[in-house]
Amino acid sequence: MTARILDGRAVSAAILDRVRREVAEFTGEHGRTPTLATVLVGDDPASHTYVRMKANRCAQVGMHSRRIELDAAIGTETLVGRIRELSADPDVDGILLQHPVPGHIDERAAFEAIDPAKDVDGVTRASFAMMAFDEGGFRSATPGGIMALLDAYDVPLPGRHAVVVGRSPILGRPVGMLLLARDATVTYCHSRTAGLADRVAEADVLVAAAGRPGLIRGEWIKPGAVVIDAGYAGNTGDVEYAAAAERASYITPVPGGVGPMTIATLLAQTIRAARDHQTRRVVSVP
Asked: Which amino acid positions bind NADP(+), per UniProt (predicted)?
């Protein structure tokens, strides 16, 4: 068996085409351009690359990207204050705080300064709760992108055993909740799980999100399993790709799988936030 590729580049391109049409329609109807504010703290080269990629995608779909760069030496209070200003700014529809921030900053406090109505990256507690209870809100961008990718290939989820390796609040935990909402039976694992190989071998659907390159060996994969590799370090994911591809039915490449879906989901949620924002503006007019 050789796995079929879950092509995030192709699926994300289709999503971005739809977003481009929605942005043009919104701009024509309301006379303003949807705006995503990106906040970057410090000089981490990878973070600068990610923010630049997001700005380029915004330009491609006709969306405005407002980039806020802050010195690495700022404190939590300064960052929280800047994000609250963006939350209150009527010209901003979505806010992205690039992760990670420098270690001396309380990242959770910074995330919670984002207005949930503008939390298009799905990082606040409010967004997680609404997602977990299936009450709307914005999905964490990478988990939302993973679900969209599975849907694009008609991967069945009800009744299947999904194993998530990773427990971060913006990836591992929320993707497990989204899978559970689709009637999968979900097991959470992590790098310290005893007998990790045995747990992985039980997975009909595996989401590798530990951020540990090569953690999951190819021979652990259940024949016919669907493998989603959300790890990324250079061009290496969490899964031993070549060996896993010989056993899986579907697999994401690294790069070109989950990564493009994250940005597409972010922008799809930004145009949705802009529409919601515009509706609230109209309702608030006396």
From this structure: 166-168
